[in-house]
Specification:
The protein has about 130 residues and is mainly α. It has a domain of about 90 residues: Serine Threonine Protein Phosphatase 5, Tetratricopeptide repeat (Alpha Horseshoe). About 75% of the residues lie in helices and about 0% in strands. The N and C termini lie far apart (about 45 Å).
């Protein structure tokens, strides 16, 4: 498979918009390819990392998702959306302890978020159920 074409810096947002459009049409493989083009030009593009990670989750490829979310979190440790999404990918892999840590970090950033609190509670229950 040939490498993706290198896009110009001026085209990054147009390619992102097209990738998000494909993502919203559940055309995840095509969206991943476009997000990859963006990341080739701008490796720390937070939205490209996040959307590509979510696309990997939708394709049931959580290991690839973890890589993208981890890069996004390294770039911006306050990226609560990527923490929650990485927790989902960890849960898909059966790594409830890692998922719980990510959810707890996200909750520290947004302690008044009832949905996030509920996710933490559910993850705690799963973590306890597997004998930890």
């Amino acid at each position: 498979m040939p490498p993706p074409p290198v896009i110009s810096p001026e085209d990054i947002e147009a390619v992102m918009d097209r990738g998000i459009s494909l993502f919203n049409q559940d055309r995840f493989e095509e969206a991943i390819a476009l997000f990859g083009q963006v990341l080739q030009r701008s490796p720390e593009h937070g939205d490209a990392l996040y959307y590509r990670g979510i696309a990997w989750i939708n394709l049931n490829r959580p290991a690839e998702a973890v890589v993208d979310f981890s890069s996004a979190i390294l770039r911006d440790p306050g990226d609560g959306d990527s923490l929650v999404a990485r927790a989902e990918a960890y849960q898909m892999q059966g790594e409830t302890e890692r998922a719980l840590l990510d959810l707890q970090m996200a909750l520290k950033q947004d302690p008044r978020n009832p949905d996030l609190r509920q996710l933490v509670d559910r993850c705690r229950q799963k973590h306890s159920a597997v004998g930890h």
